[in-house]
Amino acid sequence: MEWGNYSMHADFVLLGLFSHTHFPWLLFSLIFLVFVISVASNTVMIILIHIDPQLHTPMYFLLSQLSIMDILYITTIVPKMLADQLVGQKTISFAGCTAQHFLYLTLAGAEFFLLGLMSYDRYVAICNPLRYPILMSRKVCLLIVAAAWLGGSVDGFLLTPVTMQFPFCASREINHFFCEVPALLKLSCIDTSTYETAMYVCCIMMLLIPFSVISASYTRILITVCRMSETEGRQKAVATCSSHMVVVSLFYGAAMYTYVLPHSYHTPEQDKAVSAFYTILTPMLNPLIYSLRNKDVTGALKKALGRCSSRRIEDF
């Protein structure tokens, strides 16, 4: 299909993060370092949860799923961006942009729902500890993970075909470092206001549903914690919940800024900075927040390192 002088399926040009910085290779090195730390720390988290019997609980099973999502999330965007900087190429094919767009929406949506459902796990553990093995059985955990992936997939399958069917004839240059919806819609040469309104409502719903679960869960948790007489139990409850709330605040806050705040209140450069935060930094911060504030995870890591060192000594 042709629209004006532009092919609907022609390649796009990603202007990226490096075009407006005076030290592109320094930024490249920092992003590469963050990427390596993110993949390594999330992989370590998954391995620890798998090998340590003390971490075979619903909370850590859900954390392992969060780590899987974070690995997939960051690898959808960062390797392409770094490779383009290395070879001096900024183009991305229409099919590549569509695939990246779909994977980004699916993984982001799945993480939204998983973070919301993880608060239910904390609610049951603190408010109904005697019924925890029943209410958070393996079947329930699998249903929670399936629901999160299904919710994210619905988001990807609904928004990707509609976004990519618009004729992009204004320009092929995307003022972003990946194929994000708002940046893509700016290239369309037809009015997209109706679709943007529908997408706005969809994003509100996607944020509102998990946020409602989180708010209800933590309201009940707060009431229960205030009634606790044991200081140790109260501190443990606050420690596990605070880690989750920090991650939720980082991820939801950045998403609300990008998709809920009207476009007139932020510039393309601010959009790129916020997107870099929740697509590059957040996957690295998640495992660090949960491990540094969690004695079970740090204990499992020490045991794993101890076993590795003892095996090396035996080999010698």
UniProtKB/TrEMBL annotation:
Record domain G-protein coupled receptors family 1 profile: where: 41-290
Keyword Cell membrane: yes
Any one GO CC term of the record: plasma membrane
Pfam families: 7tm_4
InterPro entries associated with the record: GPCR_Rhodpsn (IPR000276), GPCR_Rhodpsn_7TM (IPR017452), Olfact_rcpt (IPR000725)
A GO molecular-function descriptor: olfactory receptor activity
Residue ranges of the TM segments: 25-48, 60-82, 102-120, 140-159, 197-216, 237-261, 273-292
Compartments reported by the entry: Cell membrane
Membrane topology category: Multi-pass membrane protein
Chief location bin: membrane
Keywords noted in UniProt: Cell membrane, G-protein coupled receptor, Membrane, Olfaction, Receptor, Sensory transduction, Transducer, Transmembrane, Transmembrane helix
Protein family: Belongs to the G-protein coupled receptor 1 family.
Protein name: Olfactory receptor
Lineage: Eukaryota, Metazoa, Chordata, Craniata, Vertebrata
